[in-house]
């Protein structure tokens, strides 16, 4: 059973759902969502179901909404890689302070995969295993080209705001995204890594995961046949890969 909690970050309330086994010691997995993703599974239930499967195996889990998303404070339009790293760090600190914590695992999908890879690079001494799913490291190249989720813009004259229809994102996200040194930070972590990507991902080229695989010494790469960015197809294979790896 998950329960709702609030994690504080610089005056912001970050909404989170946690589940911990009734044991003296346990392992915890933090699950991080992608670009405008949130704990409400209306669009993609990949992480909620994965959390349930991990809980059934006796693992603790933490899911959370980044600032401006779902039930967390702040305007979504102001989100950026930088302030989402700050959110993630606050969640990491919450978990690392748990007296029952034995091992820590980071699991990220899409942009959450990028953030998880970077957090593992920042905390190589604290993270025991890392799972990257459809990691959107191409966001850096996209920002240099001036394109995001089908919306194009001039990268040399970034507009104040980009309109995606259902939501808007401030130009600061795109001005900073082109300078994110994702792979350099990620390479500082050299523990066990599981990398999963859909062969038919039309949003993030699976070259991004191939490159992640190249920077790690202890990684395994799995391209899921016929699967898209959300890993909707052959998902049972995805769950099996992750649970086997974490166990």
Ordered list of secondary-structure elements with their pairings:
Layout: E1 3-9, E2 12-19, E3 26-32, H1 46-56, E4 60-64, H2 81-96, E5 101-109, H3 111-122, E6 129-133, H4 139-145, E7 147-148, E8 151-152, E9 161-163, E10 168-170, H5 171-177, H6 182-186, E11 193-198, H7 207-215, E12 219-224, H8 235-246
Parallel strand pairs: 3-4, 3-5, 5-6, 6-11, 11-12
Antiparallel strand pairs: 1-2, 2-4, 7-8, 9-10
Helix pairs in contact: 1-8, 2-3, 4-5
Descriptive overview:
The protein has 247 residues and is an alpha/beta fold. 32% of the residues lie in helices and 26% in strands. It has an eight-stranded mixed sheet with strand order 1-2-4-3-5-6-11-12, with helices on both faces. The longest helix has 16 residues, at 81-96.
Mean pLDDT: 96
Strand order of the largest sheet: 1-2-4-3-5-6-11-12
Q: What amount of the residues lies in strands?
A: 25-35%
Please work out how many helical segments DSSP would assign.
8
Structural class: alpha/beta
> What is the tally of beta strands?
12
Quote the distance from N terminus to C terminus: 20 Å
Gyration radius from CA atoms, angstroms = 17 Å
How does the major sheet shape up? 8 strands, mixed
Q: In one word, what is the shape?
A: globular
Order of helices and strands: EEEHEHEHEHEEEEHHEHEH
Helix content: 25-40%
